[in-house]
Amino acid sequence: MTPTSNGQMPCGERRDQWMLYAADALDPVECDALAAHLAGGCPRCAGSLAEAEAALAHLPLALEAVPPSENVRATLMRRVQAAPRAAPAGVSLPATGAAPPRTRPASPPPSRAGGWLRPALAAIAATVVTAVALTVPGTQARRDLLARVEAQDREIVRLRGAVEAAAETVRVLRSPAVRVVALSGTEAQPRAAARIFWDPSRRTWHFYAAALRAPAPGRTYQLWFITPAQEKIPAATFDVDARGEAAIEVAIPAGLDAIAVAAVTDEPAGGSPQPTGSIHLAGAIAHPSS
Amino acid sequence: MQDARDAQDDRTLMAGIAAGETTALEALFDRHAGQVMALCLRILRDRAEAEEVLGDVFWELWERADRYRHDRGAPIAYMMTVARSRAIDRLRRRRREGVVGGAAADRDDARPGAPVGGAAAETTSSDAGPYADAAATERRTRIRRALAGLSEAERRAVEMSFFDGLSHGEIARALHEPLGTVKSRIRQGLLRLRDALAGQYGTMGAA
Question: pTM value?
Answer without folding.
Answer: 0.51
